[in-house]
Amino acid sequence: MLVAFEAGGLLRALVLLLIYPFVCLVNEQMGLKMMVMVCFCGIKKETFRVGTAVLPKYFLEDVGFEGFEMLMRGGRKVGMSKLPKVMVEGFLKEYLGIDVVVGRELKVVNGYYVGLMEDKMIRKSASFLQEIFGEQTMDSDVIGIGSLCNPLDHLFSICKEIYMLSDADKKKWHYLPKEKYPKPLIFHDGRLAQRPTPLATLAIFIYLPFGIFLFIIRGLVALSLPYKISNPILAFSGLRLKITKPNSCVSTSNTTNVEHKSKGILYVCNHKTLLDPLYLSVTLNKPITAVTYSLSRISELLAPIKTVRLTRDRDQDAKMMDKLLSQGDLVLCPEGTTCREPYILRFSPLFAEMGDEIVPVAMDAHASMFYGTTASGFKCLDPLFFMMNPFPSYNVKLLEKVSGTSRCHDGDDGGELRLKIANSIQKEIGKALQFECTKLTRKDKYLILAGNDGIVKASNKS
């Protein structure tokens, strides 16, 4: 279902759901062929990234702790699967350290999958293992781990030890804790926030019309009514907002120092969804100008607050932000992109030299049905998916003010001070949310999830 929905769209997922009863009536091999046909037929091979961007999250949640420990004791590893290789190879190699993955190859015509699998998955001899590992490795001990439902006698004949597992054995296993992951799961893509079991998928399709109606109502209320009126209505519709302020409450209307009135307050927050600036505006009960690294034209037109795009030219962006701060308060997400998991990406240090007063803001968002972010899909639909959730929640924590410009301009090491301030604010936000700080960037995320550097070109250049 994940492949059908994330790679093929809503209609393909509906078709798969409708044929699922027939899949249950036939044998396992025929059922797999039917599902592969529906999920892959017509999908472009070059753009298929579900196997590396979406599925690893769900595969990791299914890994058994006992089986994982046994696997990690081995040297070189070969993984075999009845599923199409393109679905499992990325997960097995990147997260479990499998050296070679053997799976079903999909037939491709003119760069598109046709939904058919190659007949031969594994040659019925152990010679291919010798080709993979070489003669020296094959002289050592070989251990086989398999399932009683799918024995591989022609391969296990060379194994010194064989462990055969039944479904009952697997049910007794414990799930692999996240802290035991061989590689932390920081980035993942896809719109579905819950595991799409048949019943869950049916519930999603039943809820979908109501979710769209809910999004329209919430959008109209947020865009047309003032905060004092819209906030109670939105809360009644299911939106949840938790606000935490520091002991010395941040003042947005006046300051005690007259000299500081020449510039507004710069709010620096980690990035969870496109709606971060809107929730901050609701928290402060006033609209705030938002500076963004990338924003779709549709989102820009519909935004109830002023939005300004960064050009990624340091000098030009610095002048623009300085001008905006002279006009009022400003909010910026220096990560440059969103991160769903409890991690914070590297902060760009540009903001540290812009504001005399910087207020760190810790943001966290939760969705039960749809994610409001994407790396490879249509970003203009991000607010739609987030607001379609029955009870989307946000947690906004305003932290203590820090000094920016006055510190950066003291001495000749302004660049070093900017980095220190940026790293310090990143750590403070991470501490407030109990998130782990990383040095990963927007480019790292998009290379992993979308296969590009994440730079959005202006339409007039296309």
Automatic annotation (TrEMBL):
Q: Where in the cell is it found?
A: Membrane
Q: Which domain of life is it from?
A: Eukaryota
| Lineage start | Eukaryota, Viridiplantae, Streptophyta, Embryophyta, Tracheophyta
State if Kinase is listed as a keyword. Answer: no
Alphabetized UniProt keyword annotations: Acyltransferase, Membrane, Transferase, Transmembrane, Transmembrane helix
Q: Name one GO molecular function term.
A: glycerol-3-phosphate 2-O-acyltransferase activity
From the Swiss-Prot or TrEMBL record, give the protein name: Glycerol-3-phosphate acyltransferase 3 protein
- Could you give a single Gene Ontology term from the biological process aspect? cutin biosynthetic process
The reply to whether Acyltransferase figures as a keyword in the UniProt entry is yes
Q: Which CDD domains match?
A: LPLAT
**Which InterPro entries does the record match to this protein?**
HAD_RAM2/GPAT1-8 (IPR056462), Plipid/glycerol_acylTrfase (IPR002123)
| Primary location class | membrane
Residue ranges of every copy of the Phospholipid/glycerol acyltransferase domain listed in the record? 265-366
Topology of the protein relative to the lipid bilayer: Multi-pass membrane protein
**Segments crossing the lipid bilayer:** 6-27, 199-221
